[in-house]
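Q: I'm writing a short explainer about DegT/DnrJ/EryC1/StrS aminotransferase family protein for a general audience and would like to include a description of its predicted shape. Could you first generate the structure from this sequence?
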Amino acid sequence: MSAARELETALAAATGRRHGVATGRGATAIWLALEALAARHPDRRRVVLPATLCLSPPSVTRLAGLEPVFCDVEPETGQMAPRALGALLDAGEAPLCVIAAHLYGEPCRIEEIGTLCRQAGTALIEDAAQAWGASVGGRPAGSFGDLSVVSFGHTKILDAGGGGAVLTDDAGLAEDLAARARALPGKPAETAQWGADYRSRYYALAAEFAARPEARREVGALCLARPELYRYRLEEEQARRILDALPRTAAALAHRRAMAEHYEQNLDPEIERLARRSGGAPWRFSILVEPHQRASLLAGLRGAGFDASAWYPCPAPFFANVSPEHFPGSAQIETRIVNLWTDESTNPDKVCRASTFINEALAQFGSSGVRKVAR
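A: Of course. Here's the predicted structure. Afterward I'll give you a sentence or two in plain language.
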């Protein structure tokens, strides 16, 4: 058995799925999943995505010839809001599918979302790219919906350097997906350079968002400029790396959960945390600060040697003529979130020092600088 086939079997077993199809990256898995669903429903072109999300899913939606439609998120979690989804599904024709992501490694309300999708007669793709090892009600992430996507690329819960898969219980979809995966090209030799060029250009444009709103549409065009970045097969060597990494899942989860708990204990209790559910696989530990505080806090953390990010901006304006303010939950996440590292690069001492830095930095803003949170 090839390493890729062995991996497919292992991933299906780990998630309780009947079928798995390996791909070069998680974005490829989403692209193939969309194509397989579109082949069944050629009259449906709309794909519903959360309005806070990595840019890869809406990018491959466009590249698959489909229309991304965005659903607002819960400002307290950053996850797709079932109430907003229900209103969207009731407002028009059934979309091709809903893509529901477990953002930041924390479970979204996937069971409620699944019920809404079944009632509307639309397919559900569970995006578990950031949530390998997470669970919802005792069920593993990757076991929900008509199709699920997992990823083992850069910064993921189990970072094996690349690779992904789409999982399903539908034998017909699995056969279609496998045929599409066999036809994928190899990973382009220029991938690393293209990725570096993309990141350089993205951050340059992101710095202009406030002064030049059209920069957001330029990011959308940038996302679509190199389709080859999103679509390639899983090579045998990479499949073997993932197989070798899978036994580290429990240790990786334990470490991340321990780091999240250290942040929880060391950060001032009045600092607002992004709400988490049990069973999560903390991709980052995220806090919410006032918009006027964030830039200086991020700069200070990075200057002091602590990793921090501010993911994600609302993707809707990148792909349509719409303002982030159209999605108030997502707008809050975009302007307030600070993500703190939980991976193997950090440890309890570093978390303690980063937390102390944050506590002191926010205290300097005065009594109005920290939003009180009911506990």
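A: For your explainer, you could say: The longest strand covers residues 19-23.
Q: Perfect, that's easy to follow.
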